[in-house]
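Ticket opened by: R.M.
Priority: normal
Category: complex prediction / small molecule

The reporter submitted a protein together with heme C and asked that the result be attached to this ticket for the collaborator who will pick it up next week. Submitted input follows.
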Amino acid sequence: MRNLYLNTLDVKKEIIKNPNSSINQILQKETIERFTKNYLAINTAKPTEKDLRKDGIYASYADLYINSAENFLNNKTKKNYNLMVSSCIQCHERFCFGAINTINKLHLK
Ligand code: HEC
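Result attached by the on-call engineer:
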């Protein structure tokens, strides 16, 4: 989860550095490759409380996030980036309040 956060932060930094270019052109290939690995890892990440996985709610939030990450990868707009960050927060509102402030900083203005 930490890697996912740091990797998304890299994506944000690269977007901010080049405010006038299309996001597709500026993102480094390596950043996207790492991102592609990390966003899929959400399904195998182990929540500290094992019971989180049992009722399918965690999995449905994980799917929501994966869909929004794929949406961003297919169409790299600011709007899709922010929707993706919002789906991190949706799961966190349910399972992990602690990190929400940190994740909020990933939003692009
Ligand atoms: C499907 C649910 C879910 C989604 C989606 C999700 N998280 Fe998490 N996250 C958790 C849970 C649960 C924890 C609590 C730590 C644990 O139990 O592994 C956590 C912990 C964290 C932590 C703090 C703990 C650490 O490992 O340092 C950060 C930072 C974090 N998530 C960032 C993100 C970011 C950024 C995204 C989106 C790119 C995201 N999360 C998407 C469920 C989720």
